[in-house]
């Protein structure tokens, strides 16, 4: 199995664990770290809608909790007809660690789209914007 296929399969496997009783839009994410490890996440909805967690942010948070800070690629799997790009909050979260991350989105029917995070979120807010406030 190729590394791209392995990442794609990990994203679809994570999607199976999604908790999405409200939107019924299950999403899985598989994040490849610079060391080659794959960390997964799935969306976790909540009756208080604002408390829902996206799959991409779950994967990034799980990696950070394990001490990982450098990421190469993320695969996002969903059941939509067309591959779904990450939301704005996920883009900002991923940009904190990997501004030029490779982002590949897959749909259940086999479609795929590849972006660079820097193209999805140009001029992201970053640590350097906070400098000079001391």
Which residues sit in consecutive blocks of at least 5 with pLDDT less than 50? Answer: none
Order of helices and strands: HEEHEHEEHH
Strand-residue proportion: 15-25%
Task: Please outline the major beta sheet.
Answer: 5 strands, mixed
- DSSP, total strands: 5
* Continuous helix count: 5
Helix-strand makeup class: alpha+beta
Q: What's the helical proportion of residues?
A: 25-40%
Strand order of the largest sheet: 2-1-3-4-5
**Rg, alpha carbons:** 15 Å
Q: Categorize the overall geometry.
A: globular
Average of the residue pLDDT scores? 95
Rounded to the nearest angstrom, the distance between the terminal CA atoms is 50 Å
Write out key terms for the chains shown.
134 residues; alpha+beta; 5-stranded mixed beta sheet; 5 helices; 31% helix
Please provide a written account of the structure.
With 134 residues, this protein is of the alpha+beta class. The protein contains 5 helices and 5 strands. It has helices at residues 3-15, 55-65, 88-97, 117-120, 127-130, and strands spanning 27-33, 38-42, 71-78, 102-107, 112-116. The chain has a 5-stranded mixed sheet. Strand 1 (27-33) and strand 2 (38-42) form a beta hairpin. The termini are far apart.
Short description:
This protein has helices at residues 3-15, 55-65, 88-97, 117-120, 127-130, and strands at residues 27-33, 38-42, 71-78, 102-107, 112-116. The chain has 134 residues and is of the alpha+beta class. A five-stranded mixed sheet has the order 2-1-3-4-5.
